[in-house]
Amino acid sequence: xxxxxxxxxxxxxxxxxxxxSAETEEDITRENTYFNDKKVPPILxxxxxxxxxxxxxxxxxxxxxxxxWCGHCQExxxxxxxxxxYYYTSKxxxxxxxxxxxxxxxxxELNCVAYADLCTExxxxxxxxxxxFEDGEPVVTFRGVKHISVLSGxxxxxLEKVKPNTRPKNVELPEPGDKTSPGAKAEVEKTEKVDAxxxxxxxxxxxxxxxEKETETSTAANADASSEGKATPKKAYTVSYNTPAQKVAxxxxxxxxxxxxxxxTWEMFQNMVTLTQEPWFVKFYAPWCHHCxxxxxxxxxxxxxxxxxxxxGEVNCDRDTRLCKELRVRGYPSIMFFKGGEKVEYEGLRGLxxxxxxxxxxxxxxxxxxxxxxxxxxxxxxxxxxxFLYFYDHATTSEDFLSLERYPLSxxxxxxxxxxxxxxxxxxxxxxxxxxxxxxxxGRPTYYTPLAPREMRDxxxxxxxxxxxxxxxxxxxxxxxxxxxxxxxIVVLGIxxxxxxxxxxxxxxxxxxxxxxxxxxxxxxxxxxxQDLRDAKQLRIEExxxxxxxxxxxxxxxxxxxxxxxxxxxxxxxxVDGTFWQRWIRTTYGIDAxxxxxxxxxxxxxxRYWDQTSTGNPIVPSRTSILETLNKVTANPPKLKPKLTISxxxxxxxxxxxxxxxxxxxxxxCILGIAFGLFQWLMGRTTRRARGxxxxxxxxxxxxxxxxxxxxxxxxxxxxAD
Length: 722
Known about the structure:
Elements: H1 4-16, E1 33-35, E2 38-40, E3 44-45, H2 51-57, E4 60-66, H3 71-88, H4 99-103, E5 105-111, H5 116-121, E6 129-134, E7 137-143, H6 148-162, H7 182-207, H8 214-231, H9 233-240, E8 261-263, H10 266-274, E9 279-285, H11 290-305, E10 311-316, H12 321-326, E11 334-339, E12 342-345, H13 352-366, H14 374-383, E13 386-391, H15 398-404, E14 416-420, H16 423-428, E15 436-441, E16 444-447, H17 453-456, H18 459-469, H19 482-486, E17 489-496, H20 501-547, H21 550-557, E18 570-577, H22 582-589, E19 598-603, E20 608-610, H23 623-633, E21 643-644, H24 648-662, H25 664-705, H26 707-710, H27 714-721
Parallel strand pairs: 3-5, 4-5, 8-10, 9-10, 13-14, 17-18
Antiparallel strand pairs: 1-2, 4-6, 6-7, 9-11, 11-12, 13-15, 15-16, 17-19, 19-20, 20-21
Helix pairs in contact: 20-21, 20-23, 24-25
Pfam families: Thioredoxin (PF00085)
Subcellular location: Membrane
Organism: Triangularia setosa
């Protein structure tokens, strides 16, 4: 998840700092550079306070939009810097004029992490993005890392437009990182050769002097050499431009040098975590929290274990409530891993071994997405159960790579992510379009089906798919992944004893074989069902064509083949350590792990399970036993009677609860209907009673007006006589 709030807060903090004065040509907080022996001031930095003003100052302004931690931006940095230095020091043809003033053309850069709003206004969707503005309006946009010649072409077009016939016909551009243009470099080399000849002549003259003056001459020669070294710093400086040392980036500081957990305040967190590319493992706690106190020794030991490897920090949420609120800390302790503007919450156990294992995986994945070839990927398959493989080619854009860099943090402790452009791997997985993403589990590929560029860059969509396939074929059931494995699925759960290595390996091998065969069968059934639907559609089309019914033909062609399988549950496989979870297994499923390896088929959503085959025998870790029973369990309705993991009364209330959850509107309608019917019945009963009492009172009134009729009159007597 991106820390947008921290970016905005960081932007606000940076905005409060005084921007460079418009009248000041040089920024004293940054060093000047030199190109062709000419001093070049630091490139203009745009901020919310000076953005509009600087846009109005020049007719042309080329702006690089970047992020400090973006790998592609770091790669593009020397290209744009050299482009700026080259043009800043260049002269119009036949005129001794300043480039910036003559062409009214400047260069600038905009930090999209600190000033996200400005980049959003410029419709910057990926980094780096270079935009050429003319009179404040964008005219040319370059997305991604571009060669210096591409950018120079746009610059030359703009210069020719504003000042025709003032540019050279052939522009000789330097390489990114160079400090001299090709023409100036040739002149420097020529000068060096002349100086070398002069030195040789001088040495010969010194050798021809008389012996009695040898000491004096030697002293003079040393003095001349010393004075020559001071008098020609220009030549030495020029030569040093072409050394590789100028292009080597400064090494990052050694992480966690003291092996301690660093207490972080809001300001420190901003400067050291959010706005940097350094990885951090941070706990959020409260001093009064008993769980935090119990975890403290393991956290201190983790910091010692990660000395020189990973930064470890801690935040007191009683003191820095603002920071914890921004990060949405919901309980104590909460543990999160950060890298730049990304974070992922740690959901594992709190033992030292669990912390260390997660931290080592985090260090590995946070270093970026490595490239692999056919041989290295084959070696990786032997070590990793789940590997996500990203295929790319020469046409893959920087936006694609930028979206790819967002996934590793979410995969910490889950799977490995690598990328490749090896043709052998293309052939192995039959890849014909790029970019493409697959997951390999035990050598079995599963493909990410969307192919559109927008869908390949949709982080949420890709991560949802990754979550659905990042478990191994037969993972171990643990407290951290229990919900992920059990909820919404029918799970073939092996209850195994890992202490018996031979039996354990054989059981895992049988379960993996059953899992592979089951998946193959489901794919075949899916393909058969899809083909049946296609055949049915084709029959309708042919029937309509035979009858010449155009309306029926259009309707038949518009039939969509719906392969939605949301109504059917997925069957997955897992195993659990029967010795460690012996009590839970006995109380939930009534199975004693001491009786040997067993298998149950569990339906957690309906609180039911199956532990016997159709013959009444226990299900064992055998491919035949598992598949035979699974086919009958997944039938609709199941052909085998299940057992319940809860009592009958609990099951009744659970069914009512699930009915409300699965069909809320229908359930609410039924309740309202019953309530309305009951209300009508009660109202009718009350009304009838009220009306009966009213008639009696009304009769009393009539008695007074017609006493003979009601009490002993002729009519009454006649009736009685009858």
